[in-house]
Design a protein that fits this description.
The protein is mostly beta strands. It contains 4 helices and 12 strands, in the order H-E-E-E-E-E-E-E-E-E-H-H-E-E-H-E. The chain has a 12-stranded antiparallel β-barrel. A hairpin with a 7-residue loop joins strand 1 and strand 2. The chain starts with a helix and ends with a strand.
């Protein structure tokens, strides 16, 4: 029983971390964002940020209920390599203000016990996913994108994201980021998370449904990082997303508008 509890607790923390990454905490510089160009793969110094935080997020994507989750913050970089809540990857670019390359990250599943509305739909497996990321800075503005596919037993389907925003400094100690993003998913992914098969319809009482491929959601976020003396920093953020297309009309969806709020404290060294 203790092993099962530990496994589920770890999955919930990873779930929170993945959602925070999706919410684009650029101030904490996760997932390869703002990594300066290095002439060699192992040039440069170690840079590490560690911390802890909390997030208020939907019980599942499409839920009308919120819950709080603990959030581990990890960002380790050396040369062109990075490891953090955004995954493990390497920057292959040699061009200033441009990063791109492969990345391994985590695809969260869904537990039928997360909500009474999910009863009869079964559990969606979590697991690793592989993908490519891209980020381009143009002055204080930036654009970013990624595409991902599952590995092993993770939930099936290909996903992609495209976004952009603006980052600015407010005084010497404050960093403010505003960004927008749009998310796309193929038919396999949307069938897994938002579709209802005939068998699931009989077990859950929901109507059978095929969400199809298309735009899954779009949203806007704002994030503020304050740097204290001695390497400490805090971050607060909020992101509002809107489910779209066939996903929004799924009987699994209780609320089309989704809100994620975050607060964190960390240390850079």
């Amino acid at each position: 029983m203790s092993n099962l509890f530990s496994e589920r607790a770890a999955m919930k923390m990873l779930f929170s971390a993945t959602l925070i990454t999706t919410a684009s905490l650029h101030g904490i510089a996760t997932a390869g964002d703002d990594t300066p160009v290095s002439q060699g793969f192992f040039d440069g110094e170690w840079r590490t940020s560690l911390g802890i935080g909390a997030a208020s997020l939907p019980r599942y994507e499409g839920s009308d209920q919120q819950r709080w989750r603990a959030l581990p913050l990890i960002d380790i970089r050396y040369g062109r390599f990075f490891l953090g809540i955004g995954g493990l990857g390497v920057d292959l670019s040699t061009v200033e203000n441009l990063q791109f390359g492969p990345r391994l990250s985590y695809r969260t599943g869904r537990d039928a016990g997360d909500s009474a509305h999910l009863q009869g739909l079964g559990t969606i497996s979590s697991g690793a996913e592989a993908g490519l990321f891209l980020r381009r800075k143009i002055g204080a503005a930036f654009i970013h994108g990624n595409i991902n596919t599952p590995l092993g037993n993770a939930a099936k389907g290909v996903t992609a994201q495209l976004g952009g925003g603006y980052q600015m400094r407010v005084g010497a100690a404050n960093h403010l980021v505003v960004d927008t993003s749009i998310h796309w998913a193929d038919g396999n992914y949307n069938a897994t998370y938002f579709g209802v098969t005939t068998q699931q319809a009989l077990a859950s009482g929901l109507n059978s449904y095929d969400a199809g491929a298309g735009i899954k959601r779009y949203g806007v976020g704002i994030h503020w990082t304050h740097s204290f003396t001695g390497g400490w920093f805090s971050n607060i953020g909020m992101r509002v997303s809107r489910l779209a297309g066939g996903v929004a009309d799924s009987p699994i969806v209780e609320a089309k508008t989704q809100l994620i709020s975050t607060a964190a404290l960390g240390y850079r060294f």
